[in-house]
């Protein structure tokens, strides 16, 4: 990795922390330069605007969260899809644990901007449409109750994200009582899939 790439990554990492702490509106390029321990002129050299940095980080975060979901085989049964969804989504979050903090921070600071960015992602919209059709099919076949697929997806994402948001607390509690945090999180993934499937079964 050359020095330019290292410098850019240092600024990107710093910007991610600043956006989590302050949100897009309140964050400044000076804040980001300070966090990156680099000159403001250097930050502006690599990234001409705060929006350019945010869009870059958002796209990376979004791809990290949802990119691997494209590997799910939607021709399988709905219950298998749910199990695979939980597994893949949790694995994506585990690679970059700061993702939930970034998303929830921006939702708190500027929900309109976040919603607009999500709507721009046609790949996510296509995936949701595919899931909607799968739910409708399984309902018609008498496999599941009449449920809102979007609500189920939101619940799965929230259940998967919470352990990463609360990881320091979970680690503290599990260590105190003699359990390994990673083992608890693995079991949590299995429980999420079972919980959701049991909730929607006809």
**Largest sheet descriptor:** none
- Poorly predicted ranges (pLDDT <50, ≥5 residues)? none
CATH fold title of the largest domain: Tetracycline Repressor, domain 2
- Assigned CATH architecture of the largest domain: Orthogonal Bundle
What is the string of SSEs from the N terminus onward? HHHHHHHHHHH
Radius of gyration: 20 Å
Total separate domains: 2
Text of the CATH class of the largest domain: Mainly Alpha
- Based on DSSP secondary structure assignment, what is the total number of beta strands? 0
Proportion of residues in extended strands = under 5%
Amino-to-carboxy terminus distance: 54 Å
- Compute the number of helices: 11
Mean pLDDT: 83
How much helix is in the residues? Answer: over 70%
CATH superfamily of the largest domain: Tetracycline Repressor, domain 2
Structural class: mainly alpha
> What's the shape?
elongated
Any overview of this molecule?
The protein has 202 residues and is mainly α. The chain has 2 domains: 3-48, Arc Repressor Mutant, subunit A (Orthogonal Bundle); 62-200, Orthogonal Bundle (Tetracycline Repressor, domain 2), CATH 1.10.357.10. Helices cover 79% and strands 0% of the residues. The protein contains 11 helices and no strands. The chain has helices at 3-26, 29-36, 40-46, 50-66, 78-95, 99-109, 111-119, 122-140, 149-165, 167-176, 181-200. Helix 1 packs across helix 2, helix 5 (78-95) runs parallel beside helix 9 (149-165) and helix 5 (78-95) runs antiparallel to helix 11. The chain is elongated and about 60 Å long. It starts with a helix and ends with a helix. The mean pLDDT is 83.
